[in-house]
């Protein structure tokens, strides 16, 4: 395998962390003591090389246990998986949650992204830094969006150990952030998921009409029985009655479009995957929700985790997959716990496994944690990440339905998309399609944050206007701009609140619905600083694979910094931004580079920034 | 600490002829005329006691002219090349079974096979290009098995690595054969149709139970069984080997034992199934094909066949002796007894590549006349009376070479040779002219066309077609079609007439290495190659490699601890023939009692002073792979710190 190892040895802790994931080493060649037998016979080959996808879980195991990945630990993991250490180094350094240098066991991630910045994250960060100096055993890192925008500003503490501990402080003060980092076990419980979905509180008139959030705050997210008592697993039963082709027909007729941002018809994606002769087929649920301002998938997974398990089972059944991967953001510890629990419960009750519901269909779900890389939300980058490679997007075609995960036909769907399949099947395609507009059917979740009284996830049928949504959330006085679709989306003005929130409506208005981010900014927020934060985000998250994005995101940030600091010729810099933006949009491999200029462009053209 | 710079002595190109009147004098520069006159005189006075060492790296055309020079100008079949030191047993073994000595498959077939057995071959290092095809095969789903005393870089890619004792290949092969028979996995159709001697073979391998073989080879019985079943049950399988099989005192027997497994399972003569000896040099196949061997005329045609002799006699205008010449090993022995007194050595370096180099140098010094034609002043050239500067066979020469899959490919001149260096063929023709034979070869293609007219297997390969098809595999008898990529498809013919001579099982016995280990020489030394260097290093040493670390005696961690030595420490390495000093390297791929060295750096550590010249009686190849040595820690005072050896 051409493996060149250094001389570094793993510590007992590091070895134990890897062995806990992979089991003890089978031979000296894998790192056990040398035996006579080992020096006469070594097994390996395909079976061993096929474990490459365990690289990312292995890196997590080490990082969780000791807080960083030492050369000895990396070597040992590579020996176990027959991965060249140089390649594994490339993978480990790709993710922001890992460190290849020694660091304190506790890392406090303070979100400094859009919503949190507007809510004073910098101040929290500075104060926490002054309290947690060098001997405190805590490292403070400024983080991109942690997906806790409804409780901005947010901080997440991770303390390595066995087991790893996490604590969330949100809304964070310097004091609560510091105590989360120093005493994670004593940190106060997070509010229930329902608190992030204002429509679910009380028994308002809309409560009964919620299709996606209906069980949030009602059914116990840790109880499979409670889930079933609230209508759970009726959709799967219907799916078995319809058969795979019937499920795909229903989903196609429902008009369900992907909620991850690309709005691709889900039925067509499933049909194309199911029709591939090559086996096996895979289902991938994209729960790497990293678009700044997005937290709806987190709320769904925390508030109604069994719904996602059921929906994934239905999707797997429809496309003929027997393995589903749930790729979950590394920054979502509670969602991870809830989903792990739900999968284990479903497995224990025969709702996952060899014979789902006694129908002779085998399906199981593996949960894989991301490790802090926005780009891994791009589906082909996500596949590479799952396979144990750097999360760099692939060129398309071939499309995932032909060659996706492990080079096999794969349907990759967002959490919200999958959860929509449940009402499609329980209501029937026609009734579902009657919700919303003709071309954007069904309900939609919006992540409302920023300058509103009641930030959170809102469920509305497609077609409601932006103004109606903001009114529901209690928009504050002095609205200056609304960011639609997150960092990759675009700004609209306060006088554009009649934009209908549908895929076609936003497109018609020259903006985008994206992943459903609706972030309101009042006139106190300095726009140039906001744009600079967006530009920094893209520069940091560019995977560096293609030139337009790698270079363009840097040039864009530089120009915006000059504009913010008024150190250059503004007209020249705006012209430069347009040129660089066009190059990124035209020539980048994936959506990251293609959209990295959207928000800035809209701020210049619609909001008149720098005018 | 900075790593020791392992780059060895480098050689500068020869740019003009060198001569001297006696071996005690230094060389002096001479004109081409003077040098060639001296060669002509030196050869003329030793007629009847002449040998030609041809070159496995030079073109087919040069090899053709060199053997023609020996046979026509000097009237002898004493012509051979360094393939004697590596793959002659493969040629002999394959020829005995199938009537021709080439590998039976093509590289591409390795990519489309189901099982690949790499036996005694660290192709990852020694045949990196071939190994790319193996990797493609693995990627396409093939399972690879490695048989090697060391767990090499090749073995790391294997489903299963079998770490046998050095020199127990026949025991292992026989046990695999017995297991295949016992498990009912014999390809009965093929054995019945295309082989002879099966019953004898069955009786031969009967004693080789898994447990006996396990005792002799050291490999667990379950591992042997697994390999036997994997090979026999595969629909297609490739059996590849290199010098781990051939460089033994019974190398040809080893090859026969492997061929038996292919006969037993029908893994030969079909697409994707075959036998592949991996050749070490770009043209070691072509050198033999061109007749630069003592028992075959060009096109692998037997000297003992009167019809063949008549054809060549007519074409060359001379009579050919109806007997074989001396091979390289025999020529060295003939130097000892004085019956071989003049050698024309083209591009070979036997002073460093032969086993027991002290003996080889002594014998070369006894010659009355030695002319060396090379691109560098090698150790062999330093012993010569006349040194002739030649062009490099790549980049400076037009012609063809033949690779391990029998594919003849064009090489082209891209740069002008330095100084007065001249094309090998032109030099040979000038010497021939001085000895009374005027040959007119305006270019390499003229040589090739003469060869094509005499060798049926090359007949269809015009330069134009070689260019068009990017190389053509032999046999290619016709100018208007191409043959299948594999050999011996005839063995599967239902019609006995078209099937031809069936392939006999080789009835060969296990015979342990000659150089036994005992309490004085307790460690088994085996030799081989590394990725960063090539053979004696004359051609590769001039190019820096970050991987190259120079010569080491590689020991298992257990032995290093036992002798109390650490990496970099100089130790005395002694065999029954000689002794060298080398630094220690600790390699976990070795087991206790097994040591490894290369022979890439003979100017620093002359490994072949340790090796034994125990030759295969059939092919003449020496047992480079198995010596008995002891390791002695040097007294601290004389220990040389590694950095001073730069």
Characterize the structure shown.
The complex is a heterodimer of chains A (611) and B (646). In chain A, helix 10 (234-254) crosses helix 13, helix 10 crosses helix 16 (415-427) and helix 20 packs antiparallel against helix 21. Chain A has five domains: 12-92, no CATH class; 106-183, Glutaredoxin (3-Layer(aba) Sandwich), CATH 3.40.30.10; 224-433, NADH-ubiquinone oxidoreductase 51kDa subunit (Rossmann fold, 3-Layer(aba) Sandwich); 444-521, Ubiquitin-like (UB roll), CATH 3.10.20; 527-605, NADH-ubiquinone oxidoreductase 51kDa subunit, iron-sulphur binding domain (de novo design (two linked rop proteins), Up-down Bundle). Chain A has helices at residues 12-22, 46-49, 55-66, 71-81, 85-92, 114-118, 121-131, 174-182, 224-229, 234-254, 266-274, 296-303, 305-319, 333-348, 379-386, 415-427, 429-433, 466-473, 503-508, 527-541, 547-565, 570-587, 591-595, 598-605; strands spanning 41-43, 106-111, 138-143, 155-159, 165-169, 281-287, 321-328, 353-356, 361-369, 410-414, 443-450, 456-461, 479-484, 490-492, 517-522. Chain A is built from 24 helices and 15 strands. In chain A, 41% of the residues lie in helices and 14% in strands. With 611 residues, chain A is of the alpha/beta class. With 646 residues, chain B is of the alpha/beta class. Chain B folds into three domains: 18-83 and 282-473, Rossmann fold, CATH 3.40.50; 88-277, 3-Layer(aba) Sandwich (Dimethylsulfoxide Reductase, domain 2), CATH 3.40.228.10; 523-645, Barwin-like endoglucanases (Beta Barrel). Chain B has 23 helices and 27 strands. In chain B, the strands form seven sheets. Chain B has a seven-stranded mixed sheet. In chain B, helix 7 (169-182) packs parallel to helix 13. The radius of gyration of chain B is 24 Å and the shape is globular.
List the helices and strands and how they pair.
The complex is a heterodimer of chains A (611) and B (646).
Chain A lengths: L11 H11 L18 E3 L2 H4 L5 H12 L4 H11 L3 H8 L13 E6 L2 H5 L2 H11 L6 E6 L11 E5 L5 E5 L4 H9 L41 H6 L4 H21 L11 H9 L6 E7 L8 H8 L1 H15 L1 E8 L4 H16 L4 E4 L4 E9 L9 H8 L23 E5 H13 L1 H5 L9 E8 L5 E6 L4 H8 L5 E6 L5 E3 L10 H6 L8 E6 L4 H15 L5 H19 L4 H18 L3 H5 L2 H8 L6
Chain B lengths: L17 E2 L8 E2 L2 H13 L5 E4 L6 H14 L5 E2 L7 H11 L8 H4 L4 E5 L3 H4 L1 H12 L3 E5 L12 E3 L6 H14 L5 H7 E2 L1 H8 L4 H8 L3 H13 L3 E5 L1 H4 L4 H15 L8 E4 L6 H6 L6 E2 L3 E2 L3 H11 L11 H9 L5 E5 L3 H4 L3 H9 L3 E6 L11 E4 L9 E4 L4 E5 L12 H11 L9 H11 L8 H6 L3 E2 L22 H4 L3 E2 L18 E6 L24 E3 L1 H7 L6 E6 L3 E8 L7 E5 L13 E4 L6 E2 L3 E7 L13
Parallel strand pairs in B: 3-4, 3-13, 5-6, 5-9, 6-7, 8-19, 9-10, 13-14, 14-15, 20-24, 21-23
Antiparallel strand pairs in B: 1-2, 1-15, 11-12, 16-17, 17-18, 20-27, 22-23, 22-27, 25-26
Helix pairs in contact in B: 1-19, 2-19, 2-20, 3-13, 7-10, 7-11, 7-13, 10-11
């Amino acid at each position: 395998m051409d493996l060149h190892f250094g001389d570094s040895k793993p510590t007992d802790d590091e070895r134990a962390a890897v062995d806990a994931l992979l089991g003890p080493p089978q031979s000296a060649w894998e790192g056990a003591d040398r035996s006579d037998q080992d020096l006469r016979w070594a097994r390996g080959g395909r079976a061993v090389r096929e474990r490459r996808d365990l690289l990312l879980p292995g890196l997590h195991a080490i990082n969780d246990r000791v807080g960083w990945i030492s050369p000895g630990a990396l070597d040992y993991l590579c020996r176990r998986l027959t991965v060249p250490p140089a390649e594994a180094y490339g993978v480990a350094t790709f993710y922001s949650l890992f460190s290849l240098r020694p660091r304190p066991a506790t890392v406090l991630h303070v979100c400094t992204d859009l919503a949190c910045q507007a809510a004073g994250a910098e101040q929290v960060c500075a104060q926490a830094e002054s309290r947690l100096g060098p001997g405190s055993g805590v490292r403070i890192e400024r983080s991109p969006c942690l997906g806790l925008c409804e409780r901005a500003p947010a901080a997440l503490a991770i303390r390595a150990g066995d087991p790893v501990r996490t604590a969330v402080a949100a809304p964070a003060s310097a004091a609560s952030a510091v105590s989360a980092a120093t005493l994670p076990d004593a940190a106060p419980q997070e509010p229930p998921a329902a608190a992030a979905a204002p429509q679910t509180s009380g028994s308002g008139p809309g409560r009964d009409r919620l299709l996606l959030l209906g069980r949030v705050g009602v059914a116990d997210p840790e109880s499979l029985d409670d889930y079933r008592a609230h209508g759970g697993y009726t959709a799967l039963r219907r799916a078995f009655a319809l058969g795979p082709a019937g499920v795909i027909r229903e989903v196609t007729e429902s008009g369900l479009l992907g909620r991850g941002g690309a709005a691709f018809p889900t039925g067509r994606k499933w049909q194309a995957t199911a029709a591939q002769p090559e086996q096996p087929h895979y289902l991938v649920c994209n729960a790497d929700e990293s678009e700044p301002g997005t937290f709806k998938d987190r709320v769904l997974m925390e508030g109604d985790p069994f719904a996602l398990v059921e929906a994934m089972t239905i999707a797997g059944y429809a496309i003929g997959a027997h393995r589903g991967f749930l790729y979950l953001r590394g920054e979502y510890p509670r969602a991870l716990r809830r989903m792990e629990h739900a999968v284990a419960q479903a497995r224990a009750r025969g709702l996952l496994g060899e014979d789902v519901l006694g129908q002779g269909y085998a399906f199981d779900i593996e949960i894989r944690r991301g490790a802090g890389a926005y780009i891994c939300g791009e589906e082909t980058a996500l596949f590479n990440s799952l396979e144990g490679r750097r999360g760099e997007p692939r060129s398309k075609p071939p499309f995932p339905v032909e060659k996706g995960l492990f080079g096999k036909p794969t349907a990759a769907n967002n959490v919200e998309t999958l959860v929509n399949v449940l009402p499609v099947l329980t209501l029937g395609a026609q009734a579902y399609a009657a919700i919303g507009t003709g071309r954007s059917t069904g309900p939609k979740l919006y992540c409302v944050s920023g300058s509103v009284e009641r930030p959170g996830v809102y469920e509305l049928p497609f077609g409601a206007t932006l103004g109606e949504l903001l009114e529901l959330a209690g928009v504050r006085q002095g609205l200056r701009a609304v960011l639609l679709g997150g960092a990759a989306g675009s700004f609209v003005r306060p006088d554009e609140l009649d934009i209908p929130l549908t895929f076609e409506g936003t497109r018609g208005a020259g903006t985008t619905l994206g992943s459903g981010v609706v972030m309101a900014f009042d006139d106190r927020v300095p726009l140039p600083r906001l744009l600079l934060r967006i530009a920094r985000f893209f520069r940091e998250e560019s995977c560096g694979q293609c030139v337009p994005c790698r270079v363009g995101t840097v040039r864009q940030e530089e120009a915006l910094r000059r504009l913010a600091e008024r150190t250059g010729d503004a007209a020249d810099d705006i012209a430069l931004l347009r040129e660089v933006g066009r190059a990124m949009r035209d020539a980048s491999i994936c959506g990251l580079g293609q959209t990295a200029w959207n928000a800035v462009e809209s701020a210049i053209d619609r909001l008149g920034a720098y005018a | 600490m900075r790593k020791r710079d392992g780059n060895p002595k480098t050689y500068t190109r020869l740019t003009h002829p060198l001569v001297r009147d006696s071996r005690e004098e230094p060389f002096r520069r001479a004109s081409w005329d003077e040098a060639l006159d001296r060669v002509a005189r030196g050869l003329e006075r030793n007629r009847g006691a002449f040998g030609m060492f041809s070159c496995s790296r030079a073109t087919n055309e040069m090899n053709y002219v060199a053997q023609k020079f020996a046979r026509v100008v000097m009237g002898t079949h004493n012509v051979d090349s360094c393939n004697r030191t590596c793959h002659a047993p493969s040629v002999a073994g394959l020829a005995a079974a199938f009537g021709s000595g080439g590998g039976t498959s093509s590289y591409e077939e390795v990519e489309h096979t189901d099982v690949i057995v790499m036996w005694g071959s660290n192709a990852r290092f020694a045949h990196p290009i071939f190994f790319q095809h193996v990797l493609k095969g693995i990627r396409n789903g093939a399972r690879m098995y490695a048989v090697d005393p060391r767990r090499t870089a090749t073995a790391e890619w294997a489903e299963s690595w079998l770490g046998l004792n050095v020199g127990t290949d026949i025991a292992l092969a026989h046990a695999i054969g017995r297991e295949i028979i016992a498990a009912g996995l014999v390809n009965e159709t093929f054995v019945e149709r295309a082989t002879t001697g099966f019953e004898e073979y069955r009786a031969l391998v009967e004693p080789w139970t898994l447990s006996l073989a396990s005792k002799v080879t050291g490999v667990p019985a379950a591992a042997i069984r697994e390999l036997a079943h994997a090979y026999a049950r595969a629909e297609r399988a490739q059996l590849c080997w290199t010098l781990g099989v051939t460089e033994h005192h019974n190398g040809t027997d080893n090859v026969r034992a492997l061929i038996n497994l292919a006969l037993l399972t029908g893994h030969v003569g079909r697409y994707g199934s075959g036998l592949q000896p991996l050749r070490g040099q770009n043209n070691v196949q072509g050198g033999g094909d061109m007749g630069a061997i003592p028992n075959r005329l060009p096109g692998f045609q037997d000297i003992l066949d009167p019809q063949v002799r008549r054809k060549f006699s007519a074409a060359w205008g001379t009579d050919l002796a109806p007997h074989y010449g001396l091979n390289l090993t025999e020529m060295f022995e003939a130097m000892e007894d004085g019956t071989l007194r003049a050698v024309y050595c083209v591009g070979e370096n036997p002073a460093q590549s032969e086993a027991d180099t002290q003996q080889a140098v002594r014998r070369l010094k006894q010659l009355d006349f030695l002319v060396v034609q090379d691109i560098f002043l090698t150790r062999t050239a330093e012993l010569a009376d006349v040194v002739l500067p030649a062009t490099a066979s790549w980049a400076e020469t037009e012609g063809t070479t033949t690779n391990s899959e029998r594919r003849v490919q064009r090489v082209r001149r891209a740069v002008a040779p330095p100084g007065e260096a001249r094309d090998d063929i032109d030099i040979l023709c000038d010497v021939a002219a001085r000895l009374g034979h005027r040959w007119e070869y305006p270019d390499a293609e003229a040589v090739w066309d003469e060869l094509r007219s005499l060798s049926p297997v090359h007949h269809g390969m015009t330069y134009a077609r070689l260019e068009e098809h990017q190389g053509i595999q032999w046999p290619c008898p016709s100018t208007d079609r191409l043959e299948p990529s594999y050999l011996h498809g005839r063995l599967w013919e239902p019609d006995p007439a078209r099937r031809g001579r069936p392939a006999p099982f080789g009835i060969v016995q296990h015979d342990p290495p000659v150089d036994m280990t005992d309490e004085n020489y307790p460690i088994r030394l085996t030799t081989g190659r590394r990725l960063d260097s090539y053979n004696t290093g004359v051609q590769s040493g001039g190019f820096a490699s970050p991987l190259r670390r120079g010569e080491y005696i590689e020991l298992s961690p257990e032995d290093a601890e036992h002798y109390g030595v650490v990496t970099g420490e100089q130790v005395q390495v002694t065999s029954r023939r000689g002794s060298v000093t080398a630094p220690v390297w600790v390699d976990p791929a070795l087991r206790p009692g097994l040591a490894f060295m290369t022979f890439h750096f003979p100017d620093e550590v002359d490994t072949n002073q340790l090796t034994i010249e125990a030759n295969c009686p059939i092919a003449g190849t020496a047992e480079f792979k198995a010596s008995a040595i002891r390791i002695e820690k040097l007294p601290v005072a004389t220990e040389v710190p590694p950095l001073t050896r730069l």
